[in-house]
Known about the structure:
This protein is of the alpha/beta class. The chain has one domain (4-75, 82-150): Rossmann fold, CATH 3.40.50.300. It has 4 helices and 7 strands, in the order βαβαββαβββα. A 7-stranded mixed sheet has the order 1-7-6-2-5-4-3. A hairpin with a 4-residue loop joins strand 3 (67-71) and strand 4 (76-81). The radius of gyration is 15 Å and the shape is globular. Bound molecules: adenosine-5'-diphosphate and magnesium ion. The site of adenosine-5'-diphosphate (ADP) has 17 residues, from helix 2.
Amino acid sequence: MGPETLIIENEAALTGLAARLGPLLKRGDVLTLKGDLGAGKTAFTRTLIRMLAGSDVEVPSPTFTLVQVYDFPAFSVYHFDLYRLEEKELDILELGWDDARRDGVCLVEWPERLGTLLPRDRLDIEIYFHKSKEEAREMMLRPHGTWEERLR
Length: 152
Ligand SMILES: Nc1ncnc2c1ncn2[C@@H]1O[C@H](COP(=O)(O)OP(=O)(O)O)[C@@H](O)[C@H]1O
Ligand SMILES: [Mg+2]
């Protein structure tokens, strides 16, 4: 399956994709989020985590902490923002990447920083600003490995 493109009219409309992906998630999953600063990588993650929680839990950007963890009955969600990894002179493994992969679902902003740790089996999400509408975004889903079947 090739990439799938969605037009998201405004931030509230992110719930549609969150409601579709949420039920598919299971322990060991990796979703990556690419897009320019302010595109909505954190906004989408927030929407997804709130949907899983069933409430408006606080979901701060992990810009400075680099990772935030949310515990759910079936798994924990590890929300990474790896942008400042090098500047903090940290290694992804020091952030608990192995534990996250073992018992969690990983949502990763700036996945380029994962290097060879980027798993083959994953769902890549790219977010682009809409050409003319300020509140709109284009989201591209690129499934890899088992995600090709699961997204269908
Ligand atoms: N359709 C949309 N999808 C996502 N965010 C949107 C949308 N429209 C407006 N926004 C705003 O864009 C900003 C996205 O910021 P953020 O999620 O922190 O970006 P990133 O994590 O990609 O740097 C937020 O201020 C959000 O309210
Ligand atoms: Mg962000």
